Amino acid sequence: MTHRRTDHDGDSRRSAATDGGRFRVLVPLANPQHETALVTLASAVAKRYGGVIDAVHIVTVPDQTSLEYAVDHLEDHEENYHGILDAARRDAETLGVPVETHTIVSHRGFEEIFDAARTHDADLVVMGWGPDSHGDPGRIESTVDEVVGDVPCDVLVYRDRGFDPSRVLLPTAGGPDSDLAAEIARILNARYGGEITLLHVAEDGERAAGEAFLEEWALEHGFEDAARRVDTGDVAAAISRAADDATLLAIGATERGLLPRLVRGSVAADVVDEVDCSVLLAERSRTTGILDRLLGWR
């Protein structure tokens, strides 16, 4: 399917190939209510690695509408379509992070995000999940398997209930997705301070083994001073209990692709609806991601 892009900035066609391989965080924006939280989160990661934010707004038009026509008549499809990008620019610049903004006109919606990630050579995508966001599982179920099969970079999906990283809960059972969640938790802690609590849910009767695992994992990931909590029983219930005092739950996707799990049900998806705090779901690219590409930058 063809599509056409228009640039909101004069210099927004730059890519990592022409700017010295600068770290790039792509932020698809759809709902103005969540723009500030997404840009704030993206800014923390971009600033950590001396990178830039690519703020993208996708204007989806009906299949029967010519993309060439839609580009010249954007206000007909979305009044003040550039408003959310103007706000993103102000927020990112206030946080001291370079930002480039892009409007994409397409017959597709969600799928276009990952095409944009490839085009802009993104290292990380930070996207929202919930009503009126590009991450709404109810709108992507028919295409998600095709899309997620080749995710080009690391992905963070953020459920916004207020951006507050002062008390972060970080459940882990090991694996690359938990490693990515841990990396983001460290970045937020370095920038905003606060507390981090590690959680491991062990098998019934295996609490001692769970405590040994969590101690080793904490040392390997630089969380020597973090609080540790080991629970047993149902994983989703244990995470929900531990999140009662948290302001942010950062959790890895684990096992299967993140987005199919959100659609079909999973521990992570179940927990999102049970807790009151914001939730950050992390999926590390199985090809190349932050922890691989930035090994020498940390």
TrEMBL record:
Fetch the InterPro entries from UniProt: Universal_stress_UspA, UspA
List the Gene3D superfamilies hit by this protein, alphabetically.
Answer: 3.40.50.12370
Q: Which residues form the UspA domain?
A: 24-159, 167-281
Q: What Pfam families does the entry give?
A: Usp (PF00582)
Q: Which domain of life is it from?
A: Archaea
The UniProt similarity line reads: Belongs to the universal stress protein A family.
Q: In its UniProt entry, what is this protein called?
A: Nucleotide-binding universal stress protein, UspA family
